[in-house]
Fold each of these.
Amino acid sequence: MARMSWREACQLDNSLMSLERFFTIPPDYAQTLTGGLTNRCWKIVAANGEAYVWRPATPITQAFSISRFQEFQILSTIQDSGLSPKPIYIGDKGLLVEWLEGEPLTDKLTFDQLLEVITAVHSLPTTRIPVAPFNYTARVDHYWMQLKPELKTEEYQSLYRDWRNAPSLADVGYTLCHFDLAGYNMVQAKHGVLVIDWEYATIGDPRLDLTLSIDVEGVNEMDAIHRYCQLRNIEGIDDWFEGVIAWRPRANMMAMLWYLLAYQLWGDDYYIQQAERLKQQFCM
C-alpha cells in the first residue's frame, strides 16, 4: 500500500475531493489498498485517528454494473448484523465506510469459517433491503454487450448463447447474497469474522452464491452443501445439490465474461488467461 499526504492523494484521485465537506479537518493521510480487482480503493486516516475506506464510483464500476448507492443501502440495512462495515457517507463520487481492523483471511480461511459466514449472510432478513433481485441474464448480457467484436470469438459466443438463461429450479427462496464471498473478502477481527467488499451484493438465489464460494475456495462440494443445509436447518437437500450443479456452468460463464471485460478495460494478460481457463473447463 502506498501511503501519502491527503493533498497528494487528492491529486492522484480527484474523487477524494468530494469528501472535503465530510472532513472538516483534512485527513492525516491516505493510502491505496491492494487486492481489489474492480477499482482502486483508499484507506483514509482522519486527524483524530479514525480510519475509513473510500470506495469510488467510476466508469469501471459502471462497466461491471456496480452501484455504490445499492452497496450503501445494503450496508445501511445490515449494519447491526456484526458482519459488515458500517456505511459512513454516500455521494455521487463514491461510498465511505468504516475501516475494519483485523487479519485478512486470504489463504487462511477454514472450511467451517466459510460455511458459518455464508449461512449467516443468507440468514439476514431481506424485507427492508430496497434493492431489486439479481437478474442473471441481464448481468451476463450487460457484460457481453460491452465487449469489443475482436473478443467475441466463436467459442466465447457459443458459451454465452448456451448458458445465458437462468436454470429452471425448485424455489428455495431468495436471500441476501454477497456474490464474492471468499477469504480475500474476510478479516479475522477480535469478535469474529467480518465481511468486506459488498459491491456485488444483492438479493438472489443463495445456491448461486454458494456455488461461487465453493469454486473460489476449492472446497468439497458435497461436504459444503451438506454442512450448509445443516447450519440452516434445511431438509430438502436435493434441491440444493441440483441447484449448485445447474448454476455452476452459468457461474463459470459469467466469470468468463467478467474476465474478458476486465482484459478489455486493463489489457492485463492475467485476465485473458483466466477467461481462457474457464472456457477450457467447458471442454473437459
Amino acid sequence: MYTPERDRTMKEFMEAAIDEARLGLQEGGIPIGSVLVRDGKIIGRGHNRRIQNGDPLAHAEIECMRNAGRIGSYANTILFSTLIPCYLCSGAIVQFGIEKVIVGESRTFKGDIEFLKDHWVDVEDWDMKECVELMTEFIKNNPTLWNEDIGKL
C-alpha cells in the first residue's frame, strides 16, 4: 500500500545503494551498489568489488548477499540496485527467492528484466538520472574495464 512515508523510506534505501556505488568508484572500482532490505531495515549492502578483489564474481548484488550472511529464507526481501542486474546476479536473485528488485536504471546496461519477471520477481525500474549519469561517466572514462565486467572483451 502506498503511503508518503513508504515512498520516503524506499528512496532512502536507494540512496544507500547509490552511496555503495560511490564507495566502489572511490576505491577504483565500478560504481554499482546494492542493498538488501527486510522489514524496513537494511540487512546487507555491497558494491561491485570485481576490480578491487580481482574476483569476477564480486558484483554488487552478490557482495550484498554475501554481506547479509546466512539469513535463511530471502522471502519478503527487496533488493535495491543502482543498475539492472546482469545474468549472474539475476540468477542469484531467482535462486534465493528474492521477491522484489528495485533498480536505479537500465539504460546503460539492459540486463534481462524479462528473465526476472518470468521467474516471479517484481521489478521496478526507477530510471534515476543520478544512476544513469554515474554509469555513463564511468563507461565513457573506462570502456575497457566496463566491457570486461560485462564479458564483452
Amino acid sequence: MKILFLTYHGFDPGSGISKKMLAQIKGLKQNGHEVHVASYDRDKRGHLCRFIDDKPIRDYGKGKWAAIVQRIDYRCLYNYCVNEGIELIYARSYMNATPPLVCLFRRLRKAGIKSVMEVPTYPYDQEFKGYDMNQRMRLRIDQLYRKKLSAEMEAIVTFSNEETIFGQRTIRISNGVDLDTIPLHTTHPDTTYEVHLIAVAEVHSWHGFDRLIHGLGEYYKKYNGHPERKVVFHIVGDVWPSEMNGTQQAPGFAPYIRDYGIGEYVKFHGKLFGRELNNVFDQCSFAIGSLGRHRSGITIIKTLKNREYASRGIPFIYSEQDSDFDHQPYVLKAPANESPIDIDRLLVFLDSQKMTPQEIRQTVEHLSWKRQMQIVLDTLTQKT
C-alpha cells in the first residue's frame, strides 16, 4: 500500500513527539508498505514550505501572509496524493480543524483516498486553560469543525479506550516503542545513601512534576534536612517560566524549591538526547511519569513516556490508568489528585524491586510500532 504520513509541523531531533512519529513511519515500512512523509517547516532560506520526504512541493515564502496561506491552501497536498497514487493518509491531529482542512479531506475521500486521523491526547480541551487569546481562538475554531473533519475519516486512531471520538469510530492502539533506538538501562547505581530520580518531558502542567517537588520538600522537612538517604530529582526537557512560577492548572516549581530550601536536590538539565541523556539516566534508578493527567480531565491514557521508561528497563511512577502497566510489579501508582508524592513510600517500593532492566524491557516487546501500526491497517481492511 502507498501511504502518506501527514504532520502539520517539522521534525526536531530532540523532541519525543518527533521520535515517535519517525518510529511510526518505520513501523509502517516494516509491514511492507511504501511510506512518504508530508511535513511543514522552514527551508535553509527561512521560507515556509510544505515538504514531501524533505523535498518542497510548495514554497509559501516568508512573513505572516505565508503562515496564513499554508493554513488555507492545501492544493499541493491534494495534487500530490492524486498524482502519486496515494491510497491511505495517516494524519496526526494538531488540534487544527478548519474549513480548508475539511475541504481537503472531503476531496481526497471523493478521489477514493482513505484517511485516518490520530488524536494523540483525548480529551484535550482543558489543556488550553490559561493559554493566551490566540491559542484559545485556535481551540474554538477546532471545536467548531473537528466533527466535520472527523466525518471525512475512515476512523480516529486513539490511545484511549473511547469507542467514538467526535462522532467517528475509533481504532484503539497503544503507544508503541522502537527498541532499536532505546538503550537498555544497564547501570545499577548504589541507592544505599542517595537515590536519583529522572523525568524526561517537554514539561507541561499535566506532567504534575510539582507534586514530586512538593513531596521532596516534605521529605526533607520531615527529617530536618538530613534524611538517611539523599534524594535528587533530575528534570530533562524544556521548562517554561509559567511552569516554574505557576499556572491556573498547577503550582509552580520555584515556590516549592524556594520555600523548602531544596534547590540542590532539583536539577534542571534542559533538553538532552543521545549520549548526554543516557549519562543522566545512568545516574538514576527510578523514573517519573505523568502525575497530573487528571488536570486535563484524562483518566485513561497510554503515554509514550511510560513505554520508553519500560523499554530502558527502569521502574517508574505515574497516576493515570494505563492497562499495559497498571499491574506490572515495577510500577508504583500514585493517586490521581493534588497530594504531594510520598518519597518514603517511593523509597520502600524501590528497595523491593527485584526485576532486572532486561526483564522489565521484555514486558514491552509486544508493543513495537510495527505491531501497533498493523492493528490500524488490519482494522481498516476489516471494514465492510
